[in-house]
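Human: Here is a favour to ask of a fellow structure person. Comparing notes only helps if you start from a blank page. I am asking you to supply a protein in sequence and structure-token form. Write it directly below this note and I will take it from there.

Assistant:
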Amino acid sequence: MDSLSVYVVGAGPAGLFAARKLAAAGHRVTIFNRDVRPGGLAEYGIYPMKHHMKAGLRKQFAKILAMPNVEYYGNVALHCDGPLSCESLRAWQPAAIVYAVGAQGTKKLGMPGEDARGVYSAKDFVYHYNALPPFSSQDFSTGRRVAIVGMGNVMVDIARWLLIDQPGAKPNEVTVIARRGPFEVKFDEKEFDYVEQFLDREAFREELARVSEVAAAAGQDVSTVADSVFPWIKTEPATPSQSKLKFRFLTSPVGIEADIAGRIERLRVVENLLIRQGEDTKARATDKESALPFDTLIFAIGDVADPTVGLPYGKNEYLCNTDPSDPDRAAYEVFDTATGSIITGDYLVGWARKASEGLVGKARFDAERGCDYVLKYLEHAPARSTPGSAEILDELQARSEAVVTKQGVERLFQAEAGQAQALGVPEFKYPTNQEMLGAIGELREAHCAA
């Protein structure tokens, strides 16, 4: 097989593992990344105190970037109206483009008052405490009564941050707002272990009693909750905490009321019925409405694709082919509704293909499976005249303020490791792009002087 030029957009787990598979097959891979540093959600989505996990992934990613036929250009955002667009990438005529741009759009419910201060999406909030610019320096202040909408692992991470690791004052109460009941939790037991000490057992039992009749109508017996999904309520925490974690089941947000300063003051909700549908359940809203007092609200309800990237876009997602003759392959191909056909050589992998689907392991699997189809396509793809790495770098530098190469990433990691050692902490990250670029420049000058 001839060596062809392939572009990968995005340097999260999906993008990096896609790059590795393509490069291992002998192709020349160029990675374009919005952020200065590679890693994506492996860097900015995994809980910040999971240092060992992050360090292991960084080592894997460093090996990928070290491959001689892989180039990396960071601090280069893909945007339909930006200096780098889908059209400008295609104009360089790579044999294929693999989009691994994740799900960077914000999922909302379209409620009145969603623009109030103190109302955040989980993705943005997690980016903030994981020090991803520009979220790292934006206002994500929290108050004393925090509501988190959603019952997955992201909710648990946010509750853990608020109750344990957030600098400064901790909230008095964190309340989980759930559309369905206690049997429909989506978090892992081992993750909830981090915050079970804060669970208000008495309030939880009262909440079970409140929803018991509705749950029973759907064939659920809340008296078995402790045996199946909430074993923590069988025991009391060794050290009671002043901060409390509560749950409100069978409840859907419908509106936000702000105070005179424009910050959320109350969350309007409706109570839900629970409808059995085969093996699954579905929430159905009633007309019973109430207002709950909160000064902070975080939506942990998943993410959507970002329409400003410039890929063909449907309802919250980029459009894939729907060819029934080979649905597995087609699911990775970009489909253009304007022409009614696929964009030949363009592929989607990871969360760009299916938002909020699994974490690092799932992203890797999806990227490598998608690249199986990319490699089959490349077997018969025509050779094209594409610019070399020096020409691409010159072009990018003419369009962007500062482009970071893989050598720059290596220098950044060296600088941050030095800072961590000097401060005596397990990990250090510069919170702004300017500081990262400054550290890269200082080490570059030091190496040149040496």
The longest helix spans residues 360-378. Residues 146 and 296 are 5 Å apart (CA to CA). The chain has a mean pLDDT of 93. The domain at 119-299 is CATH 3.50.50.60 (FAD/NAD(P)-binding domain).
